[in-house]
Write a structure and sequence with these properties.
Blueprint: H1 2-24, H2 39-62, H3 72-89, H4 94-99, H5 107-124, H6 128-153, H7 174-194, H8 198-217, H9 221-241, H10 245-267, H11 272-275, H12 278-284, H13 291-309, H14 321-326, H15 345-377, H16 383-399, H17 407-424, H18 437-460, H19 463-477, H20 484-495, H21 502-517, H22 524-544, H23 549-566, H24 569-585, H25 590-602, H26 606-617, H27 626-636, H28 640-652, H29 667-676, H30 683-696, H31 700-712, H32 716-729, H33 732-746
Helix pairs in contact: 1-2, 1-5, 1-6, 2-5, 2-18, 3-5, 3-15, 5-17, 6-7, 6-8, 7-8, 7-9, 7-16, 9-10, 9-16, 13-15, 15-16, 15-17, 19-20, 19-21, 20-22, 21-22, 22-23, 23-24, 23-25, 24-25, 25-26, 25-27, 26-27, 27-28, 27-29, 28-30, 30-31, 31-32, 32-33
Domain O-antigen ligase-related: 207-362
Organism: Candidatus Ryanbacteria bacterium CG10_big_fil_rev_8_21_14_0_10_43_42
Main location: membrane
């Protein structure tokens, strides 16, 4: 009797804990923590999994029938996580592979929690009734998330960080919201198939349409491609599994309609109907030649090069940022400076876990296919259910070809894996054995120890990590109010915790220092104090993780900044040496060259500065935004001849098979270069440079700069002609200044 009571408590405690994960995790947003949409969810997920695992372990002690049952998916999942662990420990940064960081909160530790979730969920949910209830819990959460998305879209609430026209609700990114709703739309299809009440089917059908609307409101093209791929695969699977010839014909018609609809959208992309609807325009403009697609292809090529260097077990989970820098394609400059993910989960596993890990990954999905087949053959799933699941997994895998997972998508897919496993293996009662009262009491005692261990683990393992995440936010929020001494003290208190968050704390402190260097009201003494403190910390960071290029760049920048403040030649030399180490690590990474050029400019060594940026510029094979940095260094050095050559090369990179469009200068960025060109150098040389720019692209800014340069040489009439040309093409706000300039010429 006592055993049965304890068993029920542990069983329902485990079930409720899993439901809590599905319902609450997507809704957690922790404004007091660094990366509020990421860290809060992950800490909640890990803590609850650890507590629930203690309950489940106690349940297994009391009733061994809840032990995990053998099956291909259990072996595949366990093998995959085991290989992740080995690859991480033998990888380029074992600590990062295991713990990850606040921005991603993934790491091996998360996959261990996911494996635990899989085992527990497959053990305590065994019937379709159990699973319908579980799906309802998750669908309830998805409804709330979709409602928040609707409020966001209508402007009823404002969520910091959201972009116009795209929503992300509580997920923190439109991509994450789209995937979350994508999974739940297919779950709705399964629930509609399994329930029998007409009113419930109607209600869930309406919920499907509502979530589909919010799904499209996220504006996520990769997820839409995934949805279409899932639709196609689902119909194909249904055609091969249904015995009904009429339904086969209907499926074929739907396939044709699907392809025709997509084809029609692309063919009418220039129509008024499509162009007047921003979301349709966004989806119709999906192209393999778009800037986003090209950047993805470039990153995938870099990932392939990284894989070839470490093909067996890869670089370790989460360590793509290392080969990213090593094999950086300079043509990618102008995108995000750092990609710590491949933005393709299949390539991600290949480059970070090698061919062994990738094989395990393929094996994991192969076991999913095997179970879908078995469950259909055993009539556990009918044709519609197996088709919906095939469509769901296809949509997930296809959209993951463009982005990466978060704890939410991992959690949902893990629960679906458990769903397949639990229905594919027999769960029967263990052979009963007569236990003495002492043995029953011993089992209850051990079960209690398991529960206590789970609670203790959950309450202690993450305490310091949460404190660091909160400490970073506290320091950032107080930056505008505290003195340099106070900021240093707050920073010391944060990093004293000694968790994986120390790296990000140092990086954010670096951001504060750079921000302070641009603030006119920050005294030189305070700035020097902050810079010196940050140098000390970044030295520790580089010593701890010498393989990370971005920390070398940060340290080089800090030494350059202190050199600018004090004029200490030792700081200059340190900066140059550190940048040179970075260049040796990643010969094609442009920010390193720009950084060392900045140090040379601070030292008035203009020749070395121009040589540095020109070196990386010559490696580029297509027009790139680095041209503005390159030209800026050249004109600040007064080397207008080289600047003119750089303009000519920039123009020559356009209208080529690799880059069919003409090279184009962005007026605001070009204006900054032109304005700086008046600081140094000869007037005649500047004229040649400006004429070269003008020959490449007629622009009112260049025309007026050329007119001013001609005035300096006494060529007023020629200056007037350029000013009049500028007036014809200048924006309305620029005409007033041009007219004033022309009147000034009349006064000569």
């Amino acid at each position: 009797m006592q055993n049965g009571y304890v068993e029920r408590i542990l069983l329902w405690g485990t079930r409720i804990g899993i439901w809590l994960l599905l319902f609450v995790t997507p809704l957690v947003v922790s404004g007091s923590l660094f990366f509020p949409f990421i860290t809060g969810k992950n800490f909640f997920f890990r803590i609850v999994v650890e507590i629930v695992f203690g309950l489940w372990a106690g349940l297994v002690v009391v009733n061994p029938s809840f032990r995990p049952r053998k099956g291909p998916l259990l072996w595949a999942f366990s093998g995959f996580v085991s290989i992740l662990f080995i690859a991480g420990m033998l990888g380029a940064d074992a600590a990062h592979s295991f713990w990850s960081n606040f921005e991603r909160m993934e790491g091996i530790v998360t996959h261990l929690h996911l494996l635990a979730l899989f085992i527990m969920t497959a053990s305590v949910f065994r019937t379709k009734k159990d699973w319908i209830l579980t799906f309802h819990v998750s669908l309830a959460a998805s409804f709330i998330v979709a409602c928040i998305g609707l409020l966001e879209k209508t402007g009823s609430i404002a969520i910091p960080g959201s972009s116009p026209g795209r929503v992300f609700a509580t997920l923190g990114n439109p991509i994450y919201l789209a995937l979350y709703l994508l999974i739940h739309m297919f779950l709705l299809g399964i629930v509609i198939r399994w329930i029998t009440q007409y009113w419930a089917r109607v209600a869930y059908g309406l919920l499907f349409l509502f979530e589909l609307y919010i799904f499209f409101a996220s504006g996520t093209r990769g997820a839409v491609v995934g949805l279409f791929a899932g639709f196609i695969v689902g119909l194909v699977v249904f055609m091969f599994t249904t015995p009904d010839a009429r339904m086969k014909r209907i499926s074929l018609v739907l396939l044709i309609i699907g392809f025709m609809s997509v084809g029609g959208l692309f063919m009418s992309r220039e129509s008024v109907f499509v162009q007047s609807r921003p979301l349709l325009t966004r989806f119709a403009n999906i192209s393999l030649s778009s800037a986003t697609a090209e950047s993805r292809f470039t990153i995938w090529r870099m990932a392939w090069e990284g894989f070839k260097e470490r093909p067996i077990l890869g670089w370790g989970p989460g360590n793509f940022i290392i080969p990213y820098a090593t094999y950086y394609d300079p043509n990618l400059f102008g995108n995000e400076p750092w990609f710590d993910r491949v933005h393709n989960m299949h390539f991600e596993w290949l480059v970070t876990t090698g061919i062994i890990g990738f094989t395990a990954y393929v094996g994991l999905w192969g076991s999913v296919v095997i179970l879908l087949w078995r469950l259909w053959r055993r009539n556990v799933f009918d044709s519609i259910t197996v088709s919906l699941l095939a469509a769901l997994f296809t949509a997930y895998l296809v959209q993951n070809s463009f982005v990466f997972d978060t704890v939410i998508s991992y959690m949902l897919i893990t629960v679906l894996f458990a769903f397949l496993h639990s229905l594919s293996v027999p769960y029967g009662e263990e052979k009963s054995s007569i236990l003495s009262a002492g043995m029953r009491n011993n089992r209850i005692l051990v079960a209690g120890c398991c529960v206590a261990a789970g609670i203790i683990l959950a309450s202690t393992l993450h305490t310091k990590q949460i404190q660091v995440a909160r400490g970073i936010i506290t320091t950032l929020q107080s930056a505008s109010q505290g003195t340099a001494l106070i900021l240093n003290e707050q920073f010391d208190a944060t990093i004293a915790k000694g968790t994986f968050g120390v790296t990000e704390a140092r990086e954010r402190f670096m951001d504060l220092v750079l921000q302070a260097s641009r603030e006119p009201n920050v005294s030189g003494q305070d700035l020097l104090l902050l810079v010196t403190k940050n140098i000390d910390e970044m030295e520790k960071q580089v010593a701890k993780k010498p393989q990370l290029l971005r920390h070398h760049i940060s340290l080089g920048k800090l030494y350059q900044l202190r050199f600018a403040l004090t004029g200490n030649k030792s700081d200059r030399d340190h900066s140059i040496d550190i940048y040179n180490v970075g260049i040796a690590m990643a010969p094609n990474y442009p920010p390193t060259y720009i950084g060392i050029a900045e140090t040379y400019l601070t030292d008035n060594n203009f020749e070395e500065a121009t040589n540095a940026v020109d070196t990386i510029y010559q490696k580029m094979t297509r027009p790139n935004s680095i041209i503005y940095s390159v030209l800026l260094v050249s004109v600040l050095a007064g080397d207008f001849d080289r600047a003119a050559e750089q303009v000519e090369r920039y123009v020559s990179l356009g209208n080529t098979p690799e880059y069919p469009a003409p090279a184009w200068f962005e007026p605001p960025k070009l204006e900054d270069v032109i304005r700086r060109s008046f600081v140094r150098g000869g007037v005649a040389e500047r004229e040649v440079f400006l004429r070269t720019v003008l020959a490449a692209q007629e622009n009112s800014i260049v025309l007026m700069a050329l007119a001013e340069t001609l005035v300096e040489q006494g060529k007023n009439e020629e200056a007037r002609s350029f000013a009049l040309r500028a007036r014809e093409i200048a924006p309305p706000e620029g005409v007033i200044e041009i007219d004033k300039f022309i009147r000034g010429l009349d006064d000569f």
